[in-house]
Write the structure tokens for this entry.
Amino acid sequence: MSTTTTTTTTTTSPTPIVFGVLLLGAGVQLLDVSPVDIFGMLDRAYLRACQLPENVVAQGVDVEFHYITESGEALHPMTAGAKIGVTDSIHTSPRLTHLLLPGPPPTYTPSPAITHFLTTQLPHLTAFMTVCTGVMPALASGILDGKTVTAPRGLIPMLRGKYPGSEFVEKRWVRDGKVWTSGGVTNGLDMMAGFLREGFRGGEKREVVEVVLGLADVGDRGQEYRD
């Protein structure tokens, strides 16, 4: 009698991307949120709408975006008179894979609930990113202790004195593991370009990343300030 052994191969799909944008304080800088749109350009439907070759479209991803505030109000006030539709409160937000923290007003102080949200989400994140003053509530929460970070250039001397547990460098953006921080407003775009090239899926989707960055015309300034 012969025995036939059947081997089953299981294909593991990439972890679904659940991308959160945490909006803190009235008057979040509108341009600080723009890096999320660069990430959104990786969406297959967007790539196909741009009439790109199918081999590039196939490298795209499916992303679920969540716009989160502490209370979950319907609209959150931004600068320039804009408002962003809110999808979740910090209590209803799902477990995220990526979290972007754009800059609140510099006087904003995070509540204990926000600190709890940040500290409980961080261990599960693939990437945590701050733009401009978005680094300040992250610093206040303690999640950047022991990390190398950057911030708006004019605020770095003050922040060095206030948060000695973090190492501050003067760059457009800096990476420390899964923590990505950026300097002033538009440096968030530089940071997102760096993330897509270095940190997104281990850099394996290089072709689609360069196509997206070319379409948006970002990513050429590098990390270092030139003045």
Remarks:
- Residues 187-198 form the longest helix (12 residues).
- The CA atoms of residues 29 and 79 lie 5 Å apart.
- Residues 1-13 have pLDDT under 50 and may be disordered.
